[in-house]
Design a protein that fits this description.
heterodimer; A: 173 residues; mainly alpha; 8 helices; B: 255 residues; alpha+beta; 5-stranded antiparallel β-sheet; elongated
Chain lengths: 173, 255
């Protein structure tokens, strides 16, 4: 389900305004999907570069942000899996850019570590919901699936996380 | 029930904290230059090359003459290789794809610029391959591959490409599109002319590769990556070839 190329908005937003408004949101999504802040910024910027190159077309979509989110989460997932494979094969981690955003707390880090272990769609839906605060419909637009499928992904994700994060309690924080 | 409530709170807290942390990030200026391929895959290209070397396939392939049997064609260098211009003045083709599926490594990439000097069948195949790759259209790509297309030295064909993408061992489609933006070279294989990207592939050694062609490789690889792979003697990284009749013959790495 590609983003609609038909723009119902009255004006085409300049890329610069779009970029400044959306940048930190994209970094946040990538930060949850990747292990380091530096890698998150790399992927976010790369996604915006892609949007910038195609802005004449992307800007005509009803929701250009959905396109960028889709590119971003796929790239973030791809990079994470590739780095995991490297680690398994050669016992080394890929090198990301130096982090320029703060480290997350151990509690938040543990959450995202577990989220990254979820099946891809479940992890993406979880991050788009809890980090980017998108509605089910908006997540469906980004992931290219129905609202019902998004609800199913989130339900399964919560079920798995309730087990993997079961050691946590309100009192432990 | 209490546990699920706790889980919900924890997820929201993690989301809140992650948004706060991300607000510290400052949007850098957007660079208009072309993006390089992410570097992680290169480790595997090297490992792949070493594995191929170690299982003894090398002796039958190291002769840098054309074999024309659908496996790695010759890496003929020197007089028989005709290099294309390193740059082109033809304006880029604008993709007419209505949307990008974005579920592969090439999603969001720009269509490679048209290149001068390519016969029509080659130019059309190159354009069709890149158009399919940037919208992650594996079915079309497979239909373009044809029966003689090779993706590894043990007989693997198109099926490797979606497998690599799925496993993320190689960003195969991103590499393919990236290579099409580098200069090509021609080589003679059993009387046929094959068009090969990148041109670096036809040189005997890295030192023989002209500066302009090395610069073009930097649109696909980082300098660090290229330096790392000089130890293999000649260019043994990813390359792809189309025959003068427009048949896609290989997309392969290793030596």
């Amino acid at each position: 389900m590609p983003p609609s190329p038909t723009n119902s908005r009255s004006e085409i937003e300049p890329f610069d305004a779009f970029y400044r408004r959306e940048y930190t949101r994209m970094v946040a999504i990538a930060r949850a999907l990747l292990r380091t802040g530096g890698a998150a910024e790399d992927v976010a910027q790369e996604s915006f570069v892609a949007a910038h190159r195609h802005w004449d077309r992307i800007s005509t979509y009803d929701d250009p942000g959905a396109w960028v989110r889709r590119v971003l989460i796929n790239r973030a997932t791809s990079i994470r899996r590739r780095r995991g494979a490297e680690q398994r094969a050669l016992g080394r981690l890929g090198q990301g850019a130096e982090d320029s955003i703060p480290e997350l707390s151990p509690q938040a880090t543990e959450v995202w570590d577990e989220v990254r272990r979820l099946p891809r769609r479940q992890a993406q839906a979880t991050v788009l919901h809890y980090v980017d605060q998108l509605t089910m419909e908006e997540i469906g637009q980004v992931l290219g699936c129905s609202t019902g499928a998004v609800k199913s992904h989130l339900h399964r994700a919560r079920a798995r996380l309730s087990t993997s994060l079961s050691g946590w309690s309100e009192e432990a924080t | 029930m209490r546990h699920m409530d706790d889980l919900e709170k924890r997820l929201h807290r993690a989301g809140d904290e992650t948004r706060r942390a991300a607000r510290q990030a400052t949007p850098p200026p957007i660079q208009s230059g072309r993006r390089s391929i992410p570097s992680g895959w290169l480790v595997f290209a090297g490992a792949f090359a070493l594995v191929v070397l170690s299982i003894g396939i090398l002796p039958v392939l190291t002769s840098r003459t054309g074999n024309g049997d659908g496996t790695l064609p010759s890496t003929v260098a020197g007089p028989s290789s005709t290099l294309a211009p390193a740059s082109t003045t033809v304006p880029p083709v604008t993709s007419t794809a209505p949307a990008i599926a974005s579920d592969c490594s090439a999603a969001g990439m720009e269509m490679p610029a048209e290149q001068e000097g390519l016969p029509s069948p080659v130019a059309e195949m190159r354009r069709a391959m890149a158009s399919a790759a940037i919208v992650c259209d594996f079915e079309t790509l497979e239909s373009l591959a044809g029966p003689d297309m090779r993706t590894d030295f043990t007989g693997g064909r198109f099926e490797n490409i979606p497998m690599w993408e799925e496993d993320d061992l190689y960003p195969a489609l991103a590499l393919l599109v990236g290579l099409f933006d580098t200069p090509y070279a021609t080589q003679e294989v059993d009387g046929d002319t094959w068009y090969v990207w990148p041109s670096a592939f036809v040189y005997e050694t890295w030192d023989d590769i002209p500066e302009a062609d090395l610069d073009a490789l930097l649109t696909v690889y980082s300098q660090e990556e290229l330096d790392q792979y000089r130890q293999f003697g000649s260019y043994a990284l990813w390359r792809t070839a189309i025959t003068e009749d427009g048949d896609w013959r290989f997309f392969i790495a290793g030596d």
